[in-house]
Amino acid sequence: MAILQTPVLHAISPFDPRREKVLEFYYEGSQSYKNRIVITDNERGVIVYDKTTDSMRLYALIPAGLLSAGRQYLAQIQVYDMDGNHSGLSDPVLFYCFTAPAFGLEGITDGYVCRNASINLLVHYSQVENERLKSLQYFLYSGDKAPLSSSDVIYSSTPSGHSFYGLQNNSVYCLRAMGETVHGMKLDTGYIEISVIYNTVPANVVFQAENNRQNGYIQLTTNIISIGYEVKNDHYTLKDGLLTLKDNYLLYNDGFQIKDDFSLFVEAQNLPLGKFLTTDHDILSLWIINVCGTFYCRLNVGDSPAVYCVPLPKARLCTDDGRFIVTDGDTMLEVIDSTYDSNDLIVFEVKRKNGIYGLDAYYKPEGIRTEVSA
Amino acid sequence: MIFAGTTFCSGRHTLSPPPSPLSGIAAIQLFDGTYDHLLLSADPDAAVDEFDSGWTYNTKINANFEENLEAGNIGFSTKTTENLVVRRREAGTYDWTVIYVKKIQSADDFDIVLRDTYARAGVEYEYSLSSFCNGIENSYVVQKVYSDFEGFYITDKDCLYGTIYDVDGCDTNRNISSQTLNLLNSRYLTTVSNGGLNCDSGSISGTFLKTDQTGPDLLASLKYRNEFKNRLADHKPLILKIDDGRIWMIKVSSNPTDTAGGHRDIRRLQFEWVEIGSVNSMKDLYMNGFSDVDSRWW
Predict the structure, then answer these.
(1) Deepest of A215, A269, B41, B79, by most Cβ within 10 A of its Cβ?
(2) Which residues of B touch A354 (CB under 8 A)?
(3) Among A204, A229, A259, whose Cβ lies nearest the Cβ of B77?
């Protein structure tokens, strides 16, 4: 009987014994017809599995549920050919069985919406048999999984965090963390898709970058926009979010300019008859006027002979408990009111669009609306 | 038909809106009354809901008269910004290099004038200005600029010296650790590389001359060269950048020489250098004194 060449078992990484495991080996020689696998409990020295399988392929299978988590084992392989010749048992290969650890990103799952231009990542790791973490690394991919950035490999038994900055608004990214335990068990969160949606800081901070070719540097400047104003005198009060001017005016005259179309809103009450708002050089002015007993807001535009008028909002109908009554078309019921209730806050709206002015006066949408059929 | 000067609404433009002046608005004046809010927006489709939504890119004035007459957005910015961070990256790449961090305590702190002397030539850079609050980046504004200059420059956090005259090619060597062995059983040589050495070294020279409107300023040139030599000789790390786009973090490794270049007032300075770190590493920039951005921002 001939002795076949001893096979060599490949290294075996730790695995969860609840799942079956394929052990591959290397063998050269007379065609392998059967293989025998022997598993020994390394601590007790007891053979826990010994099975010969008719297979020409160079691997053996450990069935799921055979071994126990938290233990270390030795594996050996032996091959047989068609004529019954066999090899010696291979050198034993040590391996570990651990329950698959819990490994994921804290607070971030597939479909997460990030409301910032940066994201802080921290993995959570736990393992039943207290197998310690050895290293981990964070990765950032684009939405189609092209790699963008990664952290350094973090060697620590305690999970450490990492942040990715500069995420673009309205974009999709994929996050991933990979790690390894002390005994070589591989950890992977897989691709976790996130969406980045945030409110951008308005361009009140002016930011300029300019190349200074003669002196070899880039000049960066920022500044904030501040609106300059002046008041005629101290006869004004600020209370409960309301500014009251008496024998006075407030003029905003620095730090802004509109050249084209615009929207102007002013919410006000207790406006006496006459002009209450104007722009520079009286290009545009708003007036409260009374025509035949009805109060109007009038918009004058420069020297144009045309004026725009809109009646002040009419009284609205409401129930005893303050609910505004509306039609089934969501229109508030109103009555013609010949008096101007100056205590109501009215929104005066002036728009210029494509060179054409528009004026409106209304109550700010508010209150509980009760729908009735009219 | 026109009768008594009118077409009685049958004219083509009778119902068109009357022409109105289209002047700009640079001032708004409010008279007697009680005001709750004033908002001016460059968006003609803006809705009154914007009273509560704060500033947008189109907002020009937003005064809510809560505690003051302010109509700008100073309060908005200082409320949402703890640190202002300036970062740089080459266009087309992803990773940013933080080059400046400023703590924000008042509106005046938003005014920054900064010189980035570590930008190499022939590259389009993106600079971002980010608002950070509680360690979280809220959002950022990005500006692009093409970096370009002539000659070469030596710089660190406090100085910038350079010249465009007679700049040599700045020849370099790439240093690696390698040893050749002659093994008894091999026809060929074997190399052994023990170590991670992989950096540049080289030399550079140029004529340093200061000029004014009339021509060369010899006294200023002498002073400039002496200051430059003092800087080369103080053993501190420097950044060398040249107009072909190369840039290194270096230390001077030889005696700087000062030789006449055809005339005794045309002085040529030359020195050798070795690379000591990466200009793209925030840690190397901080540890070698080029940046004040500490490890909280790496």
Answers:
(1) B41
(2) 44
(3) A204
